[in-house]
Task: structure prediction
Amino acid sequence: MVTKKRWGERMVMEQLINGLTIGIIYALIAVGYSLVFGILRLVNFSHGSVYAFGAHMSLLFISMEFGIVPAIIASMIFTGMLGIAIDKLSLEPLRMKGSKPIAALITTIGISYIIQNMLMIVFGSETKSFPRLFNYGTVRIFGVNVGSTQIAIFFISLVLLVALTAIIHYTKVGLAMRGVEQNAKASYLMGINVNRVVTFTFFLGGVSAAIAGTLVSGYYQMVSPGMGFMPGLKAFSAAVLGGIGILYGSVIGGLVVGISETFAATYLGGSYRDAVAFIILILVLLVRPNGLFGKKGIKKV
Result:
């Protein structure tokens, strides 16, 4: 009886660790949604495809024998530039024309499919193998064997999330971002280049997506053009769950989604893991429409 109990406790701990690993990745992707929404009040549905683009860039540079770290850095730069291109070529012209928000929303959906199809043309539509990252064996934590890859994913993502928080709260550009978030017109009158702030925001979103895509590809050892669709939806759910536009809310939301889907896959079956994230989202929004940490009455001026 004791053995069975210990086995059950070990099983729970394993799933909790797996859930935290996946959840911190969702949090990293969700931050990209929250950054853009906080500035523009726009849901950037191309973010999932940007995530897939970042993974493919890492694979490209790794195959060119750049080395793991240089390849990830190059992927971050190129994916950040893609984020800037998305804003400059499609969204900024809409803002200049004073288009309705629905036009920008539909545009991001179209961009998502354009990026996905471009990846298919350049890299092929089939699933490709990706080298395992940070494979240094296992570590025993609380009686459970945890892979070094999982530990690396968690701490790298955590460090990046802390760095993003520090940038937003303790730098001049972060102050400008918060000013534009509160009142874009007043920020412009105070001498802040609003378009430059938006561009920087898209760059940060691209960087976080590139790191997330690379870490996930290294964890599952595979990459494909459509890999960003479901993680993008789950990350969006995580952002809404925590309160979209709230950075720490995205982190909490990502962890909740990751842990819930891991336990669902274990105890209900793998076919239910995707549905559970959205069920939790719906239940939370029925109680708190603005998410766990969202504020009421937020208006974009």
Notes: Residues 2-40 form the longest helix (39 residues). The chain has one domain: 2-287.
